[in-house]
Amino acid sequence: MTYAAEKLINLADYPIHIPGPARDAVLARVRGALAQDGCAVIKKFLTPAGIAALTAEADSVAEQGHRSFNRTNAYFTQDDPSLPQDDPRRQFYDRSNAFIPADNFVADAPLRSVYDFPGFDEFIRECLQEEAFYRYADPLADVIVNMAEEGNGFPWHFDTNNFTVTLAIQNAESGGAFEYAPGIREGDENFAEVARVLAGTSDRVKVLELEPGDLQLFRGRYSLHRVAPLRGARRRYVAIFSYVQEPGMVGAPERTMQLYGRTLPIHHQRAGQRNDAYID
Length: 280
Hints:
This protein has about 280 residues and is of the alpha+beta class.
């Protein structure tokens, strides 16, 4: 079955493929939000039919999700006993997650119909005002779904890449709020304020209750953020669209195995060819 992206994307409110005042207004609003605190949300980017189609697709491949469990700090680094016990680099939290790899989402099905819609990539690039902007070439990771179940969440962390582009598909019954401290380490690491966020005493934390169909653009390199733990039997689905600053990039074999439970020949063929810190 082929899906028409025009029925999945709310083009009436967001004519992302048509140059003109309406598109310019959306770009201006998103850029303003990103400049203010590194986070922009395009509410109801999907139509109700789009939400239903993407949810059904995620349900159909949910069992292909690769689950992982570990403990991590906000920086994804190892413990350093030379630091004080209360240093944020020594605060570790349980992390449980599952990713449904990209090769489970086939062409002409709902998720890739959105991703491949003419004008989508360019709209995202213009929102972010990035000059070097390419799709991630990794066949397991160019567009994936993060799947989280009761008790899962994502503890406080900084991203290694400059931005993320996510699309809320289905929420858990409760929990799962997106919490972030915008620009907390602009200019320096600001460990004292990071420690206050981790302790729950900072006044810089904002809370977003994203709804199915919302498109989020977020610059998480300098903003500490987390997804609060989920409650209830319903899974939370969030699509992640991956873009990078160099063409042809794929994940390192070790990181790919950790995230997706398997690798492909391309990961080994291109191992060691990367010179950046994006994605993994």
